[in-house]
Specification:
With 282 residues, the protein is an alpha/beta fold. Helices cover 40% and strands 20% of the residues. It has a 6-stranded parallel β-sheet with strand order 1-4-3-2-5-6, with helices on both faces. Strands 7-8-9 form a 3-stranded antiparallel β-sheet, with helices on one face. Helix 8 links the parallel strand 5 and strand 6. The longest helix is centred in the last third of the chain and has 20 residues. 37% of the residues are buried. The chain binds adenosine monophosphate. Adenosine monophosphate binds next to helix 2 and strand 5.
Length: 282
C-alpha cells in the first residue's frame, strides 16, 4: 500500500490510474478505523480497480474544540488495517495540503444543513461538504463510499454532488454494529467501560421502537425512545426525530408519505453518539 502525505504524491497515483483507465474507489475517513470503515473499503476494493482512503480529521467540521482535540488518532494502526483489506493508496495529509486557501465552498443544501445534526452542530455540514469536495477534486473517484451511520451526511453529500455537478457515483453502505447492537464509531473508543455498557441502550431503544412502529404513532415512538435514553443516568438525549427517509422532512404527526427513519443523538458522558434505523413500513 502506498502512503501519500502530499497532494503531489496523491496526484501522481491518481494520474497513473487514470492513464491506465483504472476505476478509482474512494473512502474518506477521519481515521481511528474500525470494521464499519473497513466494510466501506472492502466494498470499494471489490468494485474498483484501485481504492484510495483518506485519513483527515477536518477541523472545519468540528464545532467543539474538545471533540476535535480528543478525536482518536492512530495512523500506524489505521495503515496496518487498510493494508490487510487490500487498500491501494492511503492519503494522510496535514491541514495545509487540503486547505491551502481560506475560501469556502458555497453550496445550496436546501436547508438540509440546518436540521438534526446541523441544528446542534452549527457549521458542521458546511465543513463536511468543503472537505469532501476538495478531496473529490484531488482523488477524482469514479465511486465514493459513505456509511448510513451518518445518514444526514450521506444526504448532504448527495445534494453537494448534484449541486456541483460532480461526476462521481455515491455508494451507500449499511451501518456495521458491534455484537450487542451498538453502532461502531471511532468515538466509542473514548467511552469508559461503564459508559460503553450503558451506551448499548441507544441501539436497543431504536430497535425496540422499530418493533413497536406498526402499532404506534410518531409522537409515541419519539417519546418512547427519549424516555428510554433519558432514564439512564449515563445518557442525555439531544434529539430523537422521525423523518421521511428520502427528504429528511420531519414527521410531526402521521403525515409522512415516504418510508420513515428514526434518528438520535445522545451524549454519553463527554462523548456525543449518533444512531439511526429505517422503520419498518406500516
Ligand atoms: P468517519 O471516519 O467517522 O468520518 O467515517 C467515515 C465513513 O465511514 C463515513 O462515511 C461513515 O458514515 C462511515 N462509517 C462510520 N462508522 C460506520 C459504521 N458503524 N458502519 C458503516 N459505516 C460507518
Amino acid at each position: 500500500m502506498i502512503v501519500c502525505r502530499t497532494k503531489e504524491e496523491l496526484s501522481n497515483e491518481v494520474l497513473n490510474a487514470k492513464k491506465q483507465s483504472k476505476t478509482i474507489g474512494f473512502v474518506p475517513t477521519m481515521g481511528a478505523l474500525h470494521k464499519g470503515h473497513l466494510t466501506l473499503v472492502q466494498n470499494s476494493v471489490e468494485e474498483n480497480d484501485i481504492t484510495i482512503v483518506s485519513i483527515f480529521v477536518n477541523p472545519r467540521q468540528f464545532n467543539q474544540t474538545e471533540d476535535f482535540e480528543k478525536y482518536p488518532r492512530n495512523h500506524q494502526d489505521d495503515a496496518n488495517l487498510l493494508d490487510e483489506v487490500k487498500c491501494d493508496v492511503v492519503f494522510i495529509p496535514i491541514y495545509n495540503e487540503v486547505f491551502n486557501d481560506e475560501s469556502k465552498l458555497n453550496v445550496d443544501l436546501k436547508g438540509l444543513e440546518n436540521i438534526l445534526e446541523g441544528e446542534h452542530r452549527p457549521g458542521h455540514f458546511q465543513g463536511v461538504v468543503d472537505v469532501v469536495h476538495r478531496l473529490f477534486v484531488l482523488v477524482k473517484p469514479n465511486r465514493a463510499y459513505f456509511g448510513t451511520k451518518d445518514y444526514q451526511q450521506l444526504m448532504i453529500i448527495n445534494a453537494m454532488v448534484k449541486y456541483c455537478n460532480v461526476d462521481v457515483q455515491i455508494v451507500e453502505c449499511p451501518i456495521v454494529r458491534e455484537v450487542d447492537g451498538m453502532a461502531m464509531s471511532s468515538r466509542n473508543k473514548r467511552l469508559s467501560k461503564i459508559e460503553r455498557e450503558n451506551a448499548v441502550v441507544i441501539s436497543k431503544a431504536i430497535f425496540e421502537a422499530n418493533n413497536l412502529n406498526e402499532n404506534s404513532t410518531i409522537s409515541y415512538l419519539k417519546k418512547f425512545v427519549w424516555d428510554k435514553l433519558n432514564v439512564n443516568k449515563y445518557l442525555t438525549p439531544e434529539y430523537v426525530e422521525i423523518c421521511e427517509q428520502k427528504t429528511l422532512k420531519l414527521c410531526t404527526a402521521d403525515d409522512c408519505v415516504d418510508n420513515k427513519i428514526l434518528l438520535v443523538a445522545v451524549w454519553c458522558g463527554k462523548v456525543r453518539l449518533i444512531d439511526n434505523i429505517l422503520l419498518n413500513s406500516k
